[in-house]
Amino acid sequence: MKIAKTYGYLKKDLDCIEVALSNVIQAEHPVLRNAATQLLKAGGKRIRPVFVLLSGQFGNYDLERMKTVAVSLELIHMATLVHDDVIDDAELRRGKPTIRQLYDNRVAMYAGDYILARSLESITMLRKPKAHHVLSKTIVEVCIGEIEQIKDKYDWNQHLRDYLRRIKRKTALLIATSCKLGAIAADVPEALADKLYKYGYYIGMSYQIIDDIFDFTASASELGKPVGNDLLQGNITLPVLLAMKDREFCRLLKNAFSNPDILSETHMHDLLAKLKETDAIQCSYELSDHYLEKALKIVEQLPNNKAKHMLKDIAKYIGKRRS
Amino acid sequence: MNTTGMEFAHIKELIKDKIQHTYLDKYIKKPIIDEEKLFVLLSVMNHTTLTESKKRDYIITTMLVQIALDTHDLVVKTSNSDEGKQQKQEKQLTVLAGDYYSGLYYALLAEAGDFDMIHVLASAIKEINEYKMKLYYLEAESLEVFLQIVRKVESLLFVHTAKFVKEVAVKNLIEEWLLVNRLIHEKQQFYVKGYSPLLDIWSHQNDSEGYAALIKNVDSIINKLLGTIEKSAMELPDYYRDLKMHIINRINGDPTMDTIHVEEG
Fold first, then answer.
1. What 3-state class would DSSP assign to B5?
2. Residue A222 CB neighbour total at 10 angstroms
3. A297 to chain B nearest CA, in Å?
C-alpha cells in the first residue's frame, strides 16, 4: 500500500518508527539479533504504523506515544509472520529467505517469541487500560482465527460467513486495532476512536479479499509463491467459495482434492482456468468494494483535517489495486 | 501437595480451564502443568499480602507463560519434506497453541489493568529466549556453565515474579530447586527413552566423555545441589513452612530424588 502522498506526509515520523523498530530488536544473541534485523530489513508496507499515526492526528498527537504504539503493533505483526512461516513451511517472504529457512523452525519460534515479548514490554509504556483490553483481545482473536483456518481447511461445506470471520481475525482486527490504539494514545474521544476502528476493520476486510483474489490473478513471480497457493494449502478463500456455485468447477475441485497429496499441476491448471471462467473474481472485487464504500462512509463522518484526506486516499488506493 | 491459603488442586484446575480449547485438545497433546513450578509459585504468593484475586492472576499468568514457552519447545526443529498431513497439522497447531496461551496471559492481565506484571512477564520471556538461544548454539565452555544457562531458563520466570512481589529471599532456592528437578527429569527421560533432549545438546559437542560419564557427572551435580537445597530449605523462615516441608519430604522420601536408586534401577 505504498501511496507516495501518504508516505511523504508521514515520512519523518515513519523514519523515527523505523529507527525505533531497529533499536527494539537488538537482541544480545547474535543469531536472534540477525534474524530479527533481517526480517525488519526485508521491509513491509508498515500499514499498521501508518494507521496508528493517522488516527493519532485526530487528537493530541505526541510522537513519542505514537511511536510506542506503532512499534508495538508492527512487532506483533512481525512476530506473527515469523511463526506463520513455520506453519506454512515458507521458504521466502517478500522475496527473501524466511528465518526458518535461514536457520530452522526452533530459531524461528524463539525469534517470534522474543519479538512478541519486546512488543509487550514496549506497549506497557502506554498506561491506558482500554488500549490493552483491545490489543490483548485482538491478539487472542488472531490466534483463534489461525486455528479456525486450519480447522476449516478442505472443508468444502463452509459458508461465506466462515470466510468473513476468518479474514476478520486474520487481517481486519489488527488494522482496526491499529486505528483504535492510535486514537486512544492521542486521547481521541471514544465515539471518534470507535469510528476509526470501524474504518480500519472495513479497510482490512477489503484488503484481505483483494489479497485473496491476487492469489489467483497475479503471476508466480509477483506473488513469490505458486499461483493458487492458498488453495493448494487447502485454504478456501472467497474466489473459490464463489466459484463453487458453478457445478463444473465444483466437480473439478472435489476431484482434484480427493487426494490432496497427489494433486498434480494439471489439476491446478484446469482448476484455475475454470475459476477464471466463472464470475468469482468479479464478485469478489464487488464484495471488496462494498467494504471500501463502508470505509469511505465512515471517513465522511470524521473531522476535517489532513489525516482524514489521507484515510480517504488509502481507501481509494486499495480499491484500485488490480493485478 | 498441600499449601496453606490458596489450594494447589483448585488453582491447577483453574489453569486447566484456562488453557482448555476443544480443537487443540483433540489434535495435540494437552500441555503439562509443571507441578513443582506451580508449588513454588503458590508458596511465594501465599506469603504475600496481595489480594486473593491478584495472587490468582499472578499464578495463572506466570504458569500460562511457562506453558506457552514449553509448547513452543515441542515444535520440530526442521520440517521433513515427507512430513505427513497429520504431522504437519500437529506442528501447525503446536505453534498456534503456544501463541494462544501467550495471548491469554496478556488478556488476563490487561483485564486486570496490571501493566507492570505484563511488563515483568514479557521481560522474562525476552531473557529466557536469549538463554534458549545460548543453549541451542551451545555457548558454554564447561558443563557447569551449561547448567548455569539451564538454571536461568528453568527459573527466570519464577524469579522475576517473586522479585516483583518482593519475595527475594527465596531466589537461590527457587533457581536450584527448579534446576535439580529439570536434571532429574532429563535423567529419567534418558533411562526410560534412552534419550534426554537437554543432555543430548551437551553430549553431542563433548562426546569424548560419552553418555555414561555425563550421567555420572550429572548425578554428582544433583547430589551436591540436593545437599545445598536441603540446607537452604531448613533455613527458610517459618512462613515458608509448606515449601520447606515439601522440599525436605521430596528429597528424603521421593525415590526419584535418590540418584543411586535411579542408577541401580
1. coil
2. 11
3. 32
* CB nearest A113 (choices: B23, B72, B93): B72
Q: Which domains does chain A have, with CATH numbers?
A: 3-320 (1.10.600.10)
Locate the chain A residue with the closest alpha carbon to B27: A151
Q: Give the rounded percent of residues in chain B with a pLDDT score beyond 70.
A: 92
Residues in chain B, total: 265
pLDDT, tens digit, for every residue of A93-112? 888 899 999 999 999 999 99
Chain A residue at shortest CA distance from B138: A29
Does the model's ipTM exceed the 0.90 cut?
A: yes
Per-residue pLDDT, A23: 97
| pLDDT at A62 (0 to 100) | 97
Return the C-alpha cell found at B163. Answer: 522479585
- From the list B100, B115, B125, the residue facing A124 with the nearest CB is B115
What's the half-sphere exposure (Cβ side, CA atoms, 13 Å) at A143? 26
What count of CB pairs under 8 Å joins A to B?
A: 137
Our CA dihedral for B95, A105, B32, B68, rounded to 10 degrees, sits at -50
* Closest Cα in chain A, distance from residue B129 (Å): 6
> Over the stretch A115-130, which tens digit does the pLDDT of each residue have?
999 999 999 999 999 9
The DSSP code for A304 is S
What are the backbone dihedrals phi and psi of residue A97, each rounded to the nearest 5 degrees, phi first? -60, 140
- With CB atoms and an 8 Å threshold, state whether A260 touches B85: yes
pLDDT for B6 beyond 80: no
Is residue A94 a contact partner of residue B66, using CB atoms and an 8 Å limit?
no
Distance in angstroms (rounded) separating the CA atoms of residues B101 and A214: 33
Nearest CA in chain B to A151: B23
What is the β-pairing status of strands A92-93 and A96-97? antiparallel
Other C-beta atoms lying within 10 Å of the C-beta of residue A96? 14
Residue in the structure block whose three cell numbers are 499480602:
B49
- pLDDT attached to residue B209: 67
Q: B133–A117: do the CB atoms touch at under 8 Å?
A: no
